[in-house]
Amino acid sequence: SGTIGPNPSFIQEGSVLNIPCLDNVSPSTANASVLRPATTTEALPPPKPREIRFVVGTDWAPFTNEDQAQGGMITEVANVAMSLADGKPPYKIDFINDWGAHLQPLISDHAYDFSLVWFRPNCDLLDKLSDDSKFRCNNLDWSQPLFEQIIGYYTRLDQPRPATHRDLFGLHICRPSGYSTFMMEEVDLVEPNIKFTRENLTTGCFEGLVSGKYDAVVLAADVAEGAIAKIGAKDKVKFQDHLSQVATMHAVIAKTNPNAKQYLATLDSGISKLKESGEWFRIVTRQLAEHRAKTK
After folding, report:
1. Res. 265 pLDDT band, cuts 50 70 90
2. Predicted structure pTM score
3. Spatial separation of the C-alpha atoms in residues 141 and 74, rounded to whole Å
4. Quick count: other Cβ atoms within 10 Å of Cβ 133?
5. What kind of architecture, by CATH, is found in domain 149-245?
6. Whole-number Å distance between alpha carbons of 258 and 226
């Protein structure tokens, strides 16, 4: 050992080694009785595939809501789509009621694969979009549309009719907190062209519209109907349908997810089957009817 040194893998050329005969080697003191050969009679089961993980928020009826049947319309659509998807992969859907954490860090760090549900901005107009919208364009991949929503523009009945979005320049517009503004950005309804305020509740925007605090409210038509009915303002508010925009809602996955391409193909296969079977229409019709019955 003195010749070899501390590293037996490194023996210098020219070293003289004294190797004793086997008769002089000390026997091992290891207990051989603890070594037991194992006989395998059956093939080991293949490893289980990892679950595809969805995260969804709540309090966005009729789309995602823990207190709603099947967790809301979009939650049910995604759930049934995954049950029909090619390969029938295991999956789970968790409610985490912090929308701000969904994109970062939950799916950007791959703690979850998909987040439900997000509007897709027009990424061809990237220069007009806010930083939040640019983040979505640059960092997310999108499923097939799960639902299309009409984004409505609402004014008071006693106001002049705006012919175009530009006729809203100089006005005070409200949109609820946490709601995307990309549809407004795309038509230049941003400060300083307008004055912009957020309210915590959808009803707060419409109460401000009726009182004269705000000149217009931008909100999805099906959500707006419930808020307007709730404050009894149907005869005071005008839906400017010619200004409406169509926004598509999607499941999103981080571009950096190593399984993004595979998981998107899986989910999209289920969405296609769901729509082809007519089940998508039945789910949407039932969920909307139940929501409208509650908000009358």
Report:
1. very high
2. 0.74
3. 18
4. 23
5. 3-Layer(aba) Sandwich (3.40)
6. 41
